[in-house]
Amino acid sequence: MKRTYLFTSSAGIQHWMREDENGTSFEAVSETDPVIERNKAMLTHNDGYTADRSMRRVASIPYIIMHKWLNEEGWWALDPEHADKLAAKLNSSDWAHLRTAEGHLGVSNGMMR
């Protein structure tokens, strides 16, 4: 297999081209550990609310994970039309490492609450 580096995006994702007997494919690679470690620290930092309690921090998602969801499931995490799918992911124990504050997320009129 031949693997050729193409570029690194502004989001820090390295893009590679792979060529083998089955043809050509493309690969995107990024480090997620720093974000996950920061999320763990933020989870126990406070309840996530701003001083006036008008906004709340709930998660930090590495761009490569949003890219994975787009490629594998066909939806973009930042599209308000898919807020219900994002809330389901963030409420799932499978994706708990993305959360930066406790609580259950819901969606109302396309807005996460």
Description:
27% of the residues lie in helices and 22% in strands. The mean pLDDT is 92. By secondary structure, it is an alpha+beta fold. It is elongated, with a radius of gyration of 17 Å. The strands form two sheets. It has a three-stranded antiparallel beta sheet with strand order 1-2-3, with no helix packed on it. Strand 2 (14-20) and strand 3 form a beta hairpin. The chain has two domains: 1-30, no CATH class; 31-112, no CATH class. The protein contains three helices and five strands, in the order βββαααββ. The protein has helices at residues 33-43, 63-73, 83-91; strands at 2-8, 14-20, 23-29, 107-108, 111-112.
| Class inferred from helices and paired strands | alpha+beta
Oligomer: single chain
Shape: elongated
Which residues sit in consecutive blocks of at least 5 with pLDDT less than 50?
none
What is the number of independent domains?
2
* Radius of gyration based on Cα positions: 17 Å
Helical amount: 25-40%
Biggest β-sheet description: 3 strands, antiparallel
Quote the average pLDDT. 92
Task: Please sum up the structure shown.
The protein has 113 residues and is an alpha+beta fold.
Write the layout of secondary structure elements.
Layout: E1 2-8, E2 14-20, E3 23-29, H1 33-43, H2 63-73, H3 83-91, E4 107-108, E5 111-112
Antiparallel strand pairs: 1-2, 2-3, 4-5
Label this structure with key terms.
alpha+beta, three-stranded antiparallel sheet, 113 residues, elongated
